[in-house]
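Quick sanity check, N-carbamoyl-L-amino-acid hydrolase:
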Amino acid sequence: MTSTTGRVVAALDGARLWAELHDLAQLGARTDGGVARLTLDDNDIQARLWLAEQAKAIGCQVRVDPIGNMFVHLPGTDPDLPPITTGSHLDSQPTGGKYDGAYGVLAGLAALRAFREAGVQPRHSLEVVSWTNEEGMRFAPGTSGSACFTGVRRKDETRALTDADGISFGEALDACLTRLGEAGIERCPLGTPMQTFIELHIEQGPILERQGAPTGIVTGIQGVGWFECEVRGTANHAGTTPRTARQDALEGACALAAALRNAACDDEDLLRFTIGRFQVFPGSVNTIPERTLFTIDLRHPDAGTLTELEARFQALAAQEWAGCTAALTPLSRIDPVAFPEVVTDVIAEAAAELGQNAPWLVSGAFHDAIHLAGHCPTGMIFIPCKGGISHHPSERIDANDAIEGARLLTATLCRLAM
Ligand code: GLV
Ligand code: MN
Ligand code: MN
Ligand code: MN
């Protein structure tokens, strides 16, 4: 290990990182031990203000861009060079855990603090980012901040999204920006250049835990398509309408859902097919359903397979199901990415330097890094989570893995920024 990397990694305060993860989890804490910090709600705003306080304590400037992404900046010796950026997201699922997203932001802060403590100023500036609305639960689809930052989605489109109460993303964002402004947080432009982006995250799957590895090097992220399927039938009296006269939208939806799932099963090893929301209207015990809505989350590491399956799904939706008609609407599509070797090799070298056994793996979950990969050389580091469980209050990580992940991030930043 070079003496500089050694000094910075040695200055990393793992106990403080662990304590801060649990301090932050108080903002939006659920009684079951989980976290509900929905995009741009009061807990999310409190978390942003908390991040700004931590950054100021390290002597770093904090700025916010027009979509609400927050950047903590540690200046390098050459101000003309683009920053090396790390980070993740502070929003959570409604029944989320303490570490999904938050871990990557807080470990980034811990790394910046380690540079300060070691008295090392890198050549490139270092930045920690917290992207807005990764989860997409209050405003769908997610990854809004990183998608707008990289030009994958338009800001006006995103501002027009509404939550279940009819509040627009734009209204909620403006209220948040006002509060951040009152706290003295300055604005910065959208889509500024980055030298490299590294996201550290919990794996949200079982692979690293099964391998007994404290960290993993992510080779890429599989692609994902979200769809909404509507099945239309005819409402009528549940007791009097004979079978031959029924167009039951739930019966049609069940048959179509089973056919879609069967079509997806051809490639069971790699393909992921999930119906996560199913709604029946009018939702009366003694009325035949008139309309059924369900969502599909479809994932595969190959873009061509996703496209082929979408065509097969459309063909199935065009058929008649129990006398009902159906329509399949794409909600969002993100193509798979492979991270470049110029980044994964640097992470691998840093892991070797730290003596870590860091296997290579593909990410099953999407992350903001999927968009950043089109903006600058990007990579990801994973740590295990207990039982592979996430998006649930029982999400857990091991303190030692959390510290090893932060050490690997810090050593990687040293290699990239010096
Ligand atoms: C995002 O968390 C996903 O669904 O992969
Ligand atoms: Mn996440
Ligand atoms: Mn998540
Ligand atoms: Mn995610």
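Posting the structure with no commentary besides this: DSSP finds 13 helices and 15 strands in the chain.
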